[in-house]
């Protein structure tokens, strides 16, 4: 585990919240009782963002003071950047509007600051439900088994937008490792990207392992498709024999950029509120998220939907994001050149 993650974990205890006091606060109950809380998601309803947000909405509701109604709204566009910009700049700061950010929220912010009109470390992170790696998967009939195969053969991958891992991971591989992936953008959500593989419009995609297994688990049982590489901080427990991209990096520049990109796994399927949300209300939401993530009912429904549960507390996630945003500007610039310029050009 990188040193900044260990440091973040060590600081969690310093900011523990007294949940019983918050839960019984009459003023907080008035904030939520009889109200509608909206969770905004930057993707469509069919993928794991949609699935996790729906399960979270059901199980967060009884944990909040006043037990408000919770609904989910979907705002797909630019791989989550459209919703991120909205959440940071427009979303009401009353505590009644929550945001499930894309797992690339930090990476996109650092790589493309002109179109990301937000500061990832200024959101207030309530916690995440799961930490999951990005996994590059191809149909087995393409005979792509290794990084070397991707360097020799052109393949087509689908993307939901420049802010998503479906673009950033293959563009990074093109720009840093010399692969030959052609990235086709415009698919509205992970399910459309997977459907394109089935219809042979595309050959593969980079999505979280949770996305693959929750809706296309049979592909891997039958051999229809196979995972080739994974990107994250640590190996997924279900993919211990699958190479980590960090293990394949040989030069200092490759290692720096891969380490920078690996942060997306830690963001997972999290919830935030926008900056300037009242501190007491934000803390109540964070405490409620903690209770929800620990509840047997939440875990049971998630697993019944084939969704992994590996939560991280909001305090830990907050500190992690702050550290991620402090990446060496030289590394960020190298990554920007390799991914947004060289990697993008390789797809044309």
Q: What key phrases describe this protein's structure?
A:
D-Maltodextrin-Binding Protein, domain 2; 348 residues; alpha/beta; 2 domains; three-stranded parallel sheet; disordered N terminus; globular; 17 helices
Question: Please, could you describe this protein's structure?
Answer:
The protein has 348 residues and is α/β, with parallel strands linked by helices. The chain is built from 17 helices and eleven strands. Helix 4 links the parallel strand 1 and strand 2 (69-74). Helix 8 crosses helix 17 (329-345). Residues 1-24 have low confidence and may be disordered.
Q: Which CATH C-level class of the largest domain is it?
A: Alpha Beta
Quickly give the structural class: alpha/beta
Proportion of β residues? 15-25%
CATH topology of the largest domain: D-Maltodextrin-Binding Protein, domain 2
Rg over CA atoms, rounded to whole Å, is: 20 Å
Q: Please provide the ordered H/E string of secondary-structure elements.
A: HHHEHEHEHEEHEHEHEHEHHHEHHEHH
Helix proportion = 40-55%
Distance between the termini: 36 Å
CATH-scheme architecture of the largest domain: 3-Layer(aba) Sandwich
Contiguous uncertain segments of 5+ residues: 1-24
Q: How many domain regions?
A: 2
Strand order, largest beta sheet: 2-1-3
Mean pLDDT: 91
CATH homologous superfamily descriptor of the largest domain: Bordetella uptake gene, domain 1
According to DSSP, the number of beta strands is 11
Q: Biggest β-sheet: count, sense, barrel?
A: 3 strands, parallel
Number of helices: 17
Shape: globular
């Amino acid at each position: 585990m990188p040193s900044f993650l260990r440091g973040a974990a060590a600081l969690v205890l310093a900011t523990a919240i007294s949940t019983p006091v918050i839960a019984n606060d009459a003023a907080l109950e008035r904030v939520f009782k009889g109200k509608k809380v909206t969770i905004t998601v930057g993707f469509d309803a069919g993928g794991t963002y949609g699935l996790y947000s729906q399960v979270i909405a059901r199980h967060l509701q009884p944990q909040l003071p006043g037990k408000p109604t919770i609904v989910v709204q979907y705002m797909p566009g630019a791989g989550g950047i459209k919703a991120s910009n909205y959440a940071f700049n427009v979303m009401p700061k009353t505590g009644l509007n929550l945001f499930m950010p894309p797992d690339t929220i930090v990476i996109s912010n650092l790589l493309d600051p002109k179109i990301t009109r937000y500061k990832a470390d200024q959101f207030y992170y309530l916690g995440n439900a799961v930490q999951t790696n990005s996994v590059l998967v191809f149909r087995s009939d393409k005979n792509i088994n290794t990084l070397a195969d991707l360097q020799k053969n052109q393949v087509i991958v689908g993307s939901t937008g420049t802010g998503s891992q479906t673009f950033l991971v293959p563009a990074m591989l093109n720009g840093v490792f010399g692969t030959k992936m052609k990235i086709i953008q415009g698919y509205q959500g992970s399910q459309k990207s997977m459907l394109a593989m089935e219809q042979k419009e595309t050959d593969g995609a980079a999505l979280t392992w949770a996305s693959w297994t929750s809706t296309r688990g049979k592909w891997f049982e039958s051999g229809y498709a196979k995972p080739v590489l994974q990107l994250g901080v640590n190996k997924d427990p279900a993919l211990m024999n699958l190479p980590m991209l960090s293990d394949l990096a040989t030069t200092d520049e490759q290692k720096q950029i891969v380490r920078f990109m690996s942060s997306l796994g830690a963001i997972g399927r999290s919830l935030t509120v926008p900056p300037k949300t009242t501190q007491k209300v934000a803390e109540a939401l964070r405490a409620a998220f903690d209770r929800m993530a620990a509840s047997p009912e939440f875990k049971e429904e998630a697993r019944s939907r084939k969704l992994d549960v590996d939560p991280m507390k909001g305090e830990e996630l907050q500190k992690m994001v702050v550290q991620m945003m402090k990446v060496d500007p030289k590394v960020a610039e190298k990554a920007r050149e390799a991914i947004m310029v060289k990697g993008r050009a390789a797809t044309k």
